[in-house]
Amino acid sequence: MTCRRVEPRGIVTAGRTEDWHLGNATDHLPMLTLFHHPMLAACRFVRLSFGEFGEELVLIEEKPWTRRKEFLALNPAATLPVLLAESDIPIVGAPVIAEYLDETRGALKRDRRLLAEDPIGRAEIRRLVDWYLVKTEAEVTRHLVRERVLKPLMPAEMGGGSPDSTAIRAARSNIRQHMKYTNWLAGTRPWLAGSRISFADLAAAAAISVLDYLGEIDWTGNNSARDWYTRVKSRPSFRPLLADRVRGLSPAAHYADLDF
Questions:
Q1: What would the pLDDT profile of 53-110 be if each residue is shown by its tens digit?
Q2: Rounded Cα distance, 70 and 20, in Å
């Protein structure tokens, strides 16, 4: 997947206004625009999902804490990710975007489909997407990203400041259980939800990649999870994530290594 980062029309940054437009992607589909933040797991999940279909996205990095009026017009909740679909209609939230992607791409390209064909298989995939994008987010990822990544970038009046060491310790203590569960899934199934790669693998990889960037994962004793993550990390859809960088916070030394 190729991604281009641009500024949306009407957004004034650093004293200038940038215009943007949608181009054409493969199969004569319009190039879609994703409002995202590179260190949010839900946004990474959407990027990976489109990447599996080989689709190019226009990426617009959004700082949701600023509550920019143009962004609020798209999503009054000021949450990410937000996809501008055909006719610039906003689709809000990673699970909703995933369903849109399956209905508009997966149903037509069944060899690349990221949902199972049977209802039970789809239910298991959706359960694991919820596990990693909701449960892992609530117990681990959200706190570490907020304290280590976002707070240093946010002004004090918007919640910025020194990291909360208590929140960091609590999140770190929860990582072990999530990695243990991932290791069990990877050790008992070809892919996390079954016999082929699915949205479940991409949701898990999105969350784990954020923690891996921050150097928060101890892979010791999690060999099955490590082997699975290496396979996902080696896929073409993952390459743009390995190039992501956060200002003032370099990734762990092994982050971009395929053989770690």
A1: 999 899 999 999 999 999 999 999 999 999 999 889 999 999 999 999 999 999 889 9
A2: 14
The residues, ordered by sequence, that sit 6+ positions from 52 with a Cβ below 8 Å of its Cβ are: 112, 114, 197, 202, 235, 237
Q: Look at residue 53 and give its three-state secondary structure.
A: coil
Residue with tokens 């918007």: 158
The dihedral over CA atoms of 38, 40, 42, 43, expressed in degrees to the nearest 10, equals -20
Q: Are 3 and 51 in contact (CB under 8 A)?
A: no
Helices assigned H by DSSP within 89-134: 94-101, 119-130
- The three-state secondary structure class of 112 is coil
CB contact burial 127-149 (16+ within 10 A = b; e otherwise): ebbebbbebbbebbbbbbbbbbb
Distances (CA, A) of 206 to 39, 46, 66: 9, 9, 24
Q: Which of 76, 65, 79, 82 is nearest to 8 (CA)?
A: 82
Residue-range domains of the chain with CATH: 3-106 (3.40.30.10), 119-242 (1.20.1050.10)
Q: What's the confidence (pLDDT) of residue 31?
A: 86
Q: Is 224 exposed, middle or buried (0-12, 13-18, 19+ CB in 10 A)?
A: middle
| CA torsion, ordered 138, 139, 143, 149, to nearest 10 deg | -90
Helix (H, G, I), strand (E, B) or coil at 221: coil
Q: Is 54 exposed, middle or buried (0-12, 13-18, 19+ CB in 10 A)?
A: middle
- Burial code (b: 16+ CB inside 10 Å, e: under 16) for 90-119 equals ebbbbbebbbebbeebbeeeeeebbbbeee
Residue 73, amino acid: A
